[in-house]
Amino acid sequence: MQAAEFSWKNDNGNQIYAVEWPVPQARAVIGLVHGVGEHCRRYDEMAAWYNAHGIAMVGYDRQGYGRSEGRKGYAENYKEYIDEIAHLLIECERRYPDLPVFLYGHSMGGHLLLRYLIRRHPNISGAVVSAPHIRLSFQPNPVLVGIGKILRNLYPTFTQENKLDTNMLSRTPGVKATYEADPYVHAKITSRTGIDILENADELNQYDEGIDVPVLLMHGEADGLTSHDGSKDFAARNPEGLTFKSWPELYHELHNEPEREDVFRYVLSWLEENMDAVYRVPKSV
Predict the structure, then answer these.
(1) Three-state secondary-structure class, residue 81
(2) How do residues 180-230 score in pLDDT, each as one tens digit?
(3) Does 232 reside within a domain?
(4) Three-state DSSP state, 83
(5) Residue 133 contacts residue 223 (beta carbons within 8 Å)
(6) Dist. CA 230–CA 221, nearest whole Å
(7) Residue 260: which of 41, 94, 43 has the closest Cα?
(8) Which of 77, 108, 145, 261 could form a disulfide with 36 if both were Cys (CB 3.0 to 4.6 A apart)?
(9) Does residue 247 fall inside a structural domain?
């Protein structure tokens, strides 16, 4: 079935672009939270793979990203990003009310998903967190960070380049060129949002109180953008209910790597093991 576009308005009045990749008689649904600078339609091929295995997907573009409205790379409050994930869950449950719901976050989306799980304690069957920003694989430019901190409240919408090294996205030929030519991709980050993300990453890097839903945390060992060891250490601090999967030699976008079929099959197996983690009472007919 073809992807179905829809939208909602957030509390700021911004129109949020969203898409459903539907499956007749689906076994479960995945809610997708995309990474920094990108948008949900970069996951069309991943969605098609899970669709072929009976899993529906629903995704959205964060405000200021992709096809959604809003200043590029900006949220007045970090909480707005968390609220978007809460609305994504509502959309998943509304479309698939009697099915297991999983949330899937990659990179910045994985970072936001971890914060959402810790703060909101959602009633879901589990979460897949791919290459999250807990620590970076490189040292951010201290001058740019310092400027961001100074301007965070004085000039919160001051915009810089996010300095994403697109060579480190994937080893698959064509991914870098396609990413750079994509009109819905941007490299913008504002002073307030950039510092909010760095500070929340620092909190994740210290967090040790556990997560109360099953979590699959995955990271490529050769990720040059977000730190594999940051994820490994997070898993060691929060072992209960958390499965850590390390992928040797893989870069940042596990879903776009040459070995992506192996990644998809591993995730599918984990989803199937956790589909009964949350029991939902079927609606009366």
Answers:
(1) helix
(2) 999 999 999 999 999 999 999 999 999 999 999 999 999 999 999 999 999
(3) yes
(4) helix
(5) no
(6) 11
(7) 43
(8) 108
(9) yes
Are 166 and 176 in contact, with CB atoms under 8 Å apart?
yes
- Per DSSP bridges, beta strands 215-220 and 242-247 are parallel
Q: Determine the distance from the C-alpha atom of residue 240 to the mean position of all C-alpha atoms in its chain, rounded to a whole number.
A: 22
CATH number at residue 197: 3.40.50.1820
Please indicate, yes or no, if residue 284 is contained in any of the structural domains: no
Q: Could you tell me which residues come within 8 angstroms of residue 24 by beta carbon, excluding any fewer than 6 positions away?
A: 1
Q: How many domains does the chain have?
A: 1
- Show the DSSP H helices in 57-155 as ranges: 79-95, 108-120, 142-154
Both tokens assigned to 154: 């004085």
Domain that includes residue 206, residue range: 4-273
d(CA 17, CA 60): 6
Residues 6+ apart with CB under 8 A from 248: 221, 222
Query: What phi, psi does 229 have (nearest 5°)?
Result: -70, -30
Q: Rounded distance, CA 114 to CA 95, Å?
A: 24
Are 230 and 205 in contact, with CB atoms under 8 Å apart?
Answer: yes
DSSP 3-state of 247: strand
* Mean pLDDT, residues 56-63 taken together: 98
Beta-carbon contacts of residue 49 (< 8 Å; ≥ 6 apart) = 261, 264
Residue at 112 is within a domain: yes
Q: Kindly report, residue by residue over 17-39, the tens digit of the pLDDT.
A: 999 999 999 999 999 999 999 99
Kindly give, in sequence order, each residue whose CB lies less than 8 Å from that of residue 184, ignoring residues fewer than 6 positions away: 38, 39, 41, 61, 65, 66, 67
Do residues 218 and 254 make contact, with C-beta atoms less than 8 angstroms apart? yes
Specify the 3-state DSSP secondary structure of 140.
coil
Burial 20-39 (b: 16+ CB within 10 A, else e): bbbbeebbbbbbbbbbbbbb
Helix%, strand%, coil% for the chain, nearest 5: 40, 20, 45
Contact between residue 128 and residue 250 where contact means Cβ atoms under 8 Å apart: no
